[in-house]
Amino acid sequence: MDSLRHLVAHLRLDLTAICLLAFAIYYPRHRRRDLVPAYLALNVALFTVVAALAAVGGKGGMAVGFGLFGVLSIIRLRSDSVQHEEVAYYFTTLVLGLICALPQLPFGLAAVLSAVLLLVVYSADHPRLLARTRRAVVTLDTVHSDPAPLRADLERRLGEPLHWTVMEVDFVRDLMVVDVRYREAAPRATGEQPAVTERVRPTAPVLDAA
Q1: The model scores a pTM over 0.85
Q2: CA angle 119, 122, 125 (to 5 degrees)
Q3: Contact yes or no for 86/30 (Cβ under 8 A)
Q4: Which of 47, 49, 62, 122 is the most buried (most CB within 10 A)?
């Protein structure tokens, strides 16, 4: 009976943590509804399997091994449709399920570790952290042979270039593709708008007398 209560308490902790991660941190920032069920299902599935293997295996050694295998399996999520920050959420989802499902881990320690994970993700993916730093893949309609003109062109189009990599150069079509990390220009202070002079037009055309 005590083991069942222990499992239910850990399950509540896991559900609370994954709901905070998915609904309070991830979705308000990235607005990808399609990944929210994936995070929830992956977390609860990992918790269920690890808890079952721990109950069968006694000490939980098999559970730890399976959990590590689940964490390492994240490598197949490398694709263009999943961004790097979303992969970080996948890692956190897996680790939360693993930590909360370990039977030998005290409830208080599991709660503290889960809170640390959530705090790290919340801080690392905060919109105000490096807010003006951006990345873009730019296709230029000219080929720059020297870094100085290329930097000036990128600065004119985007902002302050921090780092760039030339991905493609096409001398036939006279274009180049550049992967740029840049810092956006600071927003200008809003001043008074110049007054717009309204032109008055006649309400009806003036006709010459016959």
Answers
A1: no
A2: 140
A3: yes
A4: 47
**What are the backbone angles phi and psi of residue 144, rounded to the nearest 5°?**
-100, 120
Residue 136 CA to residue 154 CA, distance in Å, equals: 11
Strands of 160-170's sheet in order across: 133-140, 175-183, 160-170
Count the Cβ atoms, other than its own, within 10 Å of residue 136: 14
Judge whether residue 209 has pLDDT over 90: no
* pLDDT tens-digit readout, 47-99: 887 787 777 665 555 656 665 565 556 555 555 556 667 778 888 888 898 88
